[in-house]
Fold this sequence. Notes:
This protein is α/β, with parallel strands linked by helices and 344 residues long. It contains 9 helices and 15 strands. It is elongated.
Amino acid sequence: MSTHELETTPSTSLDRRRLLGLMGGLAAGSLLAPARLALADHGELGGQPFSSPDSIMQMPETWVSRSIKRPEGVDLMLALDQQIYPALLPFAMRFGTQNGLKLGAQEGTCGLASAALSEKSADITGMCCPPGVIDRLPGVRFHTIGISAVALIVHPSNPLQDISWAQARALFAGGTRSWSDIPMSGVARKGEVRAITRLHCKPRPGHWRLLIGEPDHFARQALDVPSIKDMIIEVSETREGIGWETLFHVESQAKLGQVKTLKLDGISPSDEEALARGRYPFYRVMGITSWADAPAAHPMATRLAAELIAQADAIDPRFGIVSVTRLRKHGWKFKDTELIGEPG
Length: 344
């Protein structure tokens, strides 16, 4: 059997150049269970965890009738977010080899994946955020692979070990200006809190919006950075800093001891069972797309998407992705293969 290696093209940042409203707004009312099994509460400051799967953008017939435009010589094209890409790449490569297909792939951001949808330049895309209305185009199917915990991170010299969800919001919103104002934190110094944010994917629900739903509700003095690497560097170099990132990126882009992760309401971001049960409130949704209708749909792309979904439980644990199998077990809400609601 001949082997066809998966070819990659340089990652790019593409702008859809559309004026879109933000997906903020208040989440549903607080959902509470017995104390030890309390579900995540996004409260008044939190934004929507998911968008409605019934909100489909209207596109002209000339767009609907277009097929996928792939690079020359490529049988199937993928455009994947930088965390989905390495997690799913081994399965995609194996599928291509087994079926004699030449695959092309781009690694980048959710913006890259979204642009590939609107431009019809990829058979499968992958994002680290739930789809927003901007992504819900005619004929696009969304498939959830799993969710990943987002950890709050601080400088390693900060003695704080645990923080409440309410305290975290106060730190990022500017309600708490000094670390010494957090009860029993062990922080004696009066240093001013330096909130470090990365407000990516603004047209989409979930991710950082679970903490604070609207960009203008963050503290005025907050420093917004453009990339994951910048987030790690800023927190590692700022004694009074606090930021966030998924555990995979914290561990893959930070040297040992460069930043420290905090517990949220006594729950570690590495506690996957708590995340699966809906008790850990801060997470990203990892998912892929496929095309449902001709001429964009390709039978082998449909098979590849199904294979990637089926292999979710076999993803390397270092990526910290809690699979849909575990989410379904604990009552998360789905529409077909797309995660659309939290448990409770």
